[in-house]
Amino acid sequence: MKHFEFFPKIDYSNEKSVNIMVRGKIRDAILANVALYYKYTIEDSDRPDILANKYYGNSNHTWAIFYANEIFDPRFDWPLNSSQFYSYIKAKYGSVQKTQNLLDEPHHYLLDDTFVIDKTTYLDNSIEQARKQKISVYQHEWNLNEAKRDIKIVDVVYLRQLTNELENLFKS
To answer: Where are the alpha helices (DSSP H) in the chain?
Structure first.
């Protein structure tokens, strides 16, 4: 990836290597100013390189999307598409039959869509049923994946500024 050219170099096994453990953080002021970026919801078919090409005219700027959203490992920080999600669930929980059971198996319970409660409280009939909710293992995994879909894409006008900031961070 092109952005690694800004990263400091270290001696590793008698060779100069990129220190990928160094991370920069975009200034809070940039992401606090909504005029400087687009809010974007990742679709099933979206990939970081395609979005970079679409918004910045070059897939080499994929780093800008990762940087603005503090995505350190795209394998885990980028949402899975439907097919990948199904494969992930199947690999994590076992067979297709086991996966079907995840729709019913509770992961946790909520009160008023906010507070995590135990099973005893969930089954307590003195609490109005409309206030309680069972979140299945499948729904929990789905929610975790879907929470990754809303990202920020820095406006192309500010891409040079972002690049300069990254260079300056790693010069320090």
So the answer is: 28-32, 48-56, 62-68, 74-77, 82-93, 96-101, 119-123, 137-146, 159-171
Q: Give me the torsion for CA of 67, 70, 71, 72, rounded to 10°.
A: 90
CA distance to 75, 84, 136, per residue, from 24 (Å): 19, 29, 37
| Contact status, residue 122 vs residue 132, Cβ threshold 8 Å | yes
Kindly give the interhelix angle for 82-93 and 137-146, rounded to the nearest 10 degrees: 140
CA distances from 25 to 4, 98, 165 (A): 15, 41, 10
- What one-character DSSP code corresponds to residue 61? G
Mean pLDDT: which of 51-55, 101-105, 165-169 is highest? 51-55
Q: How far is CA 163 from CA 24, 88, 90, 156, 171, in A?
A: 11, 35, 40, 11, 12
Q: How many CB atoms lie within 10 A of CB 48?
A: 21
Cα dihedral 53→154→152→24 (10° resolution): 100
pLDDT digits (tens, 9 = 90+) for 94-151: 865 666 678 888 999 999 999 999 999 999 999 999 999 999 999 999 999 999 999 9
Cβ-based neighbours of 18, under 8 Å, separated by 6 or more:
4, 7, 8, 9, 10
